[in-house]
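Quick check before the chapter quiz. The format below is the same one you will see on the exam, so make sure you can read both the input and the output lines.
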Amino acid sequence: MSKAVALRGKFWTPNVALLVFFMAGAAVFSYFRFFHGFGSVTNLNPNYPMGMWIAFDVACGVALAAGGFTTCLIVEIFGKHKYHALLRPAILTAFIGYMLVGMAVMFDLGRWYYIWHALIYWNGNSVLFEVAWCVMLYLSVLAVENVPAVVEEYKDKVSLPGLLGRFNGLVNAFLQVADKVMGKVAVFFVLGGVVLSFGHQSSLGTMMLIAPYKLHELWFTPWSPLLFLMSAIAVGPSMVVFEASLATYFFNRKSEIHLIGDFAKFIPWFLGAFLLARFGDLAWRGALAAAFVPGTYAYAFWVEMALFIIPCAALMNKGVRFHGVKLFLAACSVILGVVVYRFNVFLIGMDMGPGWNYFPSVGEFAVTFGFVAFGVFLYKLAVNYLPILEQQH
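Here is the expected output.
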């Protein structure tokens, strides 16, 4: 098994400058959101209090960070250790994703400075309370799961600059203790992370059960918790393939198609199970006929299905799984399918009544792009200075 190493390459590149540009744009609109209210930045209104930030930054963000728990499930619990090289990048991506989700929630809350209330004011009857606690706990688990990379790179090599140098001994002692402790408790964090993920991934679907008269029958179902969980499990390996493919291209690494192509064999199984449950639910509720009624809802449904069905069928073919470009496109299709599914549930499938409409503002797009750019920025920073990616010869 190869050893993970920090890339230690040039960090400030034109690509990073582009990321900073998007982050700066988001920062400008963020100022107006926090100090001048929603109305100065968004197109939200009384009948559309949940817009793009909830649909993408939170609902999609949580799903697209599922690579962490699905990879842990496959590698650590199912015992498929030949995929171990994919574990650290997946955990890192999940950690960054959940951190961004936590930040995004602050943008979504009217009184953002009360985000800490879930810690103190408990409401056991609230789905959002359960989601908030699961996300907070899982973010903590992911932080701990990233500790071994920090220990491996800096233990006995701590050299803080300037006045911080006086803390070198203390920091190194902490890393030594963390190294010893993690070897004994890591398995509990792996199991805890998977359990917590099952909790909040499904509960995002539970949340939409409060809208039986607003959400179209193609998406309103008591099976929503199961479908949200299954879609997250299906997109997890796709995110791992997506991340590994981009890392290969942008960091000039040798192709890992032999590894990610083999790992991709799980995608059609997970995705097929989701599609079976999705169509089974529609048939059971007698709602399948609505998919053939011409209109926005039917078109949105079939776009969603096409983005799932095409890669599901394609990835059953080894020729697709072990072809870099075809595999990447298939993974992108699954990812986009989950995004469309969540948008259909949270926005497109919603009928808020006559006279009300919503389309995201420039500010909403800018903040969303800024979040994505910040996530990529953090990923590059981490792989450059921490042993995340496997050493190549």
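If your answer matched, good. The mean pLDDT is 90.
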